[in-house]
Amino acid sequence: MPHHFDIPQFLGVVALALAVAKFAGILAQRFGQPAVLGELIAGVILGSSVLGVVDPGSEVLHVLAELGVVLLLFEIGLETDLRKLLQVGGASAAVAFVGVLLPFVLGYAVCRMLRTSQEVAVVAGAALTATSVGITARVLGDLGRLQEPESQIVLGAAVLDDILGLVILTVVTGLTQDQAITVVGVAKVTGIAFGFLLGTLLIGGMLAQPIMRLADKLDVRALTTMLGVILALALAWLADRSGSAMIIGAFAAGLLLARTPQAHEIEKGVAHLGYFFVPLFFVWVGAQVDIRVFNPLDAANHQTLWIGGLLIVCAVVGKFLAGYAPFWFRGKKSVIGVGMIPRGEVGLIFAQMGLSKGIFDERMFSAVTLMVMVTTFLAPPLLKFLLPRSLPMVKPPAPEGTAAMVTEA
């Protein structure tokens, strides 16, 4: 018999999730914090550890959440100037490399110091290498700071970070399955990920503008927006099938269309779609948080809190110091470091893999989950503190008599 899915019940859950997320986002802004922080808190409240309304294990909700992050990265790509991104490419590469290597080494060393097995230390260290670009990008967008050099470095580093994360995930998966890890195998994964991104930008760059011009000639309402969304979904699928990450495909689609005359129209249409899907992504991430591991009165949590606390220090210090890797950059390196801190859903993937493969016990899984939770919630207020909202430029009033002089001229 097919599994019965209660559609009316699910619609009610989605309606409640959107309402609470919106209210919490507004409330967060009232307290001077980014809206995304409120949406994450809404997910925690609605999740299984508090009210139990939102089930993070729901496959349908997971699909809607993934659509949300794909649309978010597509929208970020539309707002990103590829030339600016390439200008800070060296700095992004330095941040990404150090931001993967340093947290991994620190996490591995701490776990070995606590006398865990080598497998546990490797998987825990790998979980620390992740960066959730969706959370940082949303905060920077809300603050109107996406075009700042620091933001461009963070975006570029986060994309490279995802590629390096794929390589690490492939290696760790091989270790957990007792497979031989070879230089050729690692190089193949790396080449596929970088090759997909470069190939998409080169080939897509030649096709994007002619297709959009054709769409303009057809003069069908919202056709350009729909073509943009189709491209984002198609490249997300193609990226996954080629061994890369879906969000890299979506981001690449945005970069392609950002250089077309229709970019503003597409961006506006995608933003309207994002009002529905994007908050669901952050609610879903928040719903996976189990706040019961914070309870210090439960003796069973003491060791979890101790290990989790050490991993949090490694996670924050490792990524923050990575922001100072491009020593030649004269901007606010602290913004770059903080922007790389959140682990979000990417860190949870590593934690879940460790648990499902039998490498993590419940205590270690909870400790890594605690690290993911704290880093995810730490970044938005810190970014808000370091980067106040960008205000639109207001032209000063012209001196008296200027208008008359111009008219006479």
Tell me what you see in this structure.
By secondary structure, the chain is an all-alpha fold. 74% of the residues lie in helices and 0% in strands. It has one domain: Na+/H+ antiporter like fold. The protein is globular and about 70 Å long. It contains 17 helices and no strands.
Main attributes of the structure:
Na+/H+ antiporter like fold; mainly alpha; single chain; 409 residues; disordered C terminus; 74% helix
Summarize it.
The chain has 409 residues and is an all-alpha fold. The protein contains 17 helices and no strands.
Q: What is the subunit arrangement here?
A: single chain
Count of helical regions? 17
- Mean residue pLDDT: 80
- CATH architecture, by name, is Up-down Bundle
| Secondary structure: helix percent | over 70%
Measure the end-to-end span.
84 Å
Rg calculated over all Cα atoms: 22 Å
Strand segment count: 0
What is CATH's topology name?
Na+/H+ antiporter like fold
| Approximate shape | globular
In sequence order, what are the helices and strands, one letter per element? HHHHHHHHHHHHHHHHH
* Beta-strand fraction estimate: under 5%
Low-pLDDT windows of residues = 391-409
Please give the largest β-sheet: none
How many domains? The number is 1
Q: Name the structural class.
A: mainly alpha
Question: What is this structure's SSE topology?
Answer:
Blueprint: H1 7-30, H2 35-46, H3 59-78, H4 82-87, H5 89-113, H6 118-128, H7 133-142, H8 149-176, H9 183-218, H10 223-241, H11 246-257, H12 263-287, H13 302-322, H14 333-339, H15 344-356, H16 362-386, H17 402-408
Helix pairs in contact: 1-2, 1-12, 2-12, 3-7, 3-10, 3-11, 3-12, 5-6, 5-8, 5-13, 6-8, 6-15, 6-16, 7-8, 7-16, 8-9, 8-14, 9-10, 9-11, 10-11, 10-12, 13-14, 13-16, 14-16, 15-16
